[in-house]
């Protein structure tokens, strides 16, 4: 095939292709081998699906409903371009009896719209808002595979891993944050065999690029002069975006900015001393010297005094995570959480905030029982030794690798004091003890 991302070349008999794909699918599910006519992108996806424990007779699960779904969608960045998706794809979906679908970066469907007949049919296989359609949940499918491989992709008929989805054909393209390049989700068109045409793949890719362009216009690349953006999660030295300038702060200045961002009303010198220093012998003179240096770094007018305060609005990643947790948008909160807050800081108030934020998010993840979110946390530097999270992950995704890791952690927990299990061959034991790795210089 000329383009491996396109499901059918022009002139291919779709009926014969379906027959070949069904035989190939049966061969894979029975023997684990992929016959040659299957496209490499599909074969790789089938293997990932099998490793994730997906079964061909499975179905998607609905994870968000009612208020949870509404609050999550309202917070999601792709909500801002849904009018564009409807304008560009809505008529095509309605006229062709197709569906327009949009998913998040974890493959969870946020919107499913279009002709009522295919919507009713799709509902019978849980292709509905709030359902998980990631590869790790339902195997090969266009929206889930598009976010998995970060490429536009078509999935035709029996290329789908789950049998009940095989009457459908779909094409999807990932949508990225224009500022960070991070995958926000995917836009998808789902319907009949006619969507296997190369034009449908080009269509969704063009729509995704249009959405990224609109997001870039809606979110200017530079902060306004009167707005401060503070990034402090997963880094020992915070980054400040103020008036279009990127400023990398020292560790002490990072601590001060985090605390002042949480207290827009300001803090007195005594309150800052108690928040920053465990050593009670530190004098106010030391703090004033730090604040004077910070004022020079920030430039004129941003740091007020009596009480010490920031004189412009501040948006911090800490506040975003807290706000999303408060509204129940757990996936959106986890997407922003880049690691523990200033992990190298020993400032008492920062330590308390770091623990409270991490505990709030991990507790929400355990309660949500979302296998992808739990896996992301468990495999991050700060979560790889988190026994409770690994137990929760093993309950919802009991793969051999997960069970083995859980057994190793439980063995370490029950080992006598002073005894350590040897690291597996080729792997050294982590030395960061739950902290994020330092930000590269």
Descriptive key words:
GAF domain-containing protein; GAF; Beta-Lactamase; globular; DNA-binding; five-stranded antiparallel β-sheet; four-stranded mixed β-sheet; transcription; Arc Repressor Mutant, subunit A; alpha+beta; OmpR/PhoB-type_DNA-bd; 17 helices
Walk me through this protein's architecture:
The chain is α+β, with helices and mostly antiparallel strands and 441 residues long. It has 3 domains: 14-218, Beta-Lactamase (2-Layer Sandwich); 222-362, Winged helix-like DNA-binding domain superfamily/Winged helix DNA-binding domain (Arc Repressor Mutant, subunit A, Orthogonal Bundle); 369-421 and 431-441, no CATH class. Helices cover 46% and strands 12% of the residues. It has 17 helices and 11 strands. The chain has helices at 14-31, 40-51, 66-75, 82-95, 116-123, 135-138, 142-149, 198-218, 251-262, 269-276, 284-298, 317-326, 330-336, 348-368, 371-378, 387-396, 400-414, and strands at 99-104, 109-114, 153-156, 169-176, 183-191, 228-231, 239-242, 245-248, 303-304, 309-310, 314-316. The strands form 3 sheets. Strands 2-1-5-4-3 form a 5-stranded antiparallel β-sheet, with helices on both faces. A hairpin with a 6-residue loop joins β4 (169-176) and β5 (183-191). α4 packs antiparallel against α8 (198-218), α12 runs antiparallel to α13 and α16 (387-396) runs antiparallel to α17 (400-414). The longest helix has 21 residues, at 198-218. The model is unreliable at 221-225 and 421-441 (pLDDT under 50).
